[in-house]
Amino acid sequence: MILLAPALVVLCVLVLGFVLWPLARGRAASAPRESFARAIYRDQLNEIARDVDRGIVDPGQAEAARREVERRLLASDRPDAARPPTKAQPILAAALGLGILVVAAGFYLKLGTPAATDEPYAGRAAERAMASGRMPVDLDKAVAGLEAKLAANPDDLDGWLMLGRTEAVRQHWPKSVAAMRHAMELSKDRPDIAAAYGQVLVMADGGFVASAARDAFGAALVKQPDNPQALWYLGLAAVQDKNADAARIYWRRLLATLPAGGDDRKTVEAALAELDRASASPPSK
Questions:
Q1: pTM for the complete prediction?
Q2: Which whole number is the average pLDDT over 54-58?
């Protein structure tokens, strides 16, 4: 989908605000990004295991997908860097923000191609081949066969789910989003599928919880008020809106559903603790 220029500008300003706010304020108060990433990867592993149990994913394909997700999980498994308080530099932050926007706009006008495919993933073909020599070929064949089956039977809900999740593993986001959206429509907003669709939208947007994803998570909560994915990502959306109170409400509801001692519970507890630390930090002078 091609973004309209005003929407792109607004998104750039929002992103720059999150990046440059610690510099202007003089104190870093961001949520632990590595913890968020690990939570997403663990959820993907759980989804793959559930698909295997339900018999909608071939074990060989599941193993290849699991290895890719585990590789990313291991790469993200490092402690968050502690950042000491710094002196506020609002002028420098404003200058950097303006400079970044000008440079980015110049490069986009000269080199931008909105319809281009995802080059970073395509450029990693050799790495994927080393991890599993048959993975790219097998997945391509499997996806082609699945697409042919869905063309003949477009009401196959499990088939659309498999296609959406397979394309998500391959980071083919437009195809993954389209397949998961179709699955949600077929299921009449079944909460687990609505939440899975929202998660794919978040991953496609690089971790940003946009309005379409929020709508999907909201639809999941209407039918399942304790849906863990919806509660987590709506809390993350509140953090992006700098609404700590709303984030606490979602994450405390999520915490009440999680078993003690689990990794997911530890991630949510760490996120809530980070919110409390950020709120308790005195404003810089």
A1: 0.54
A2: 70
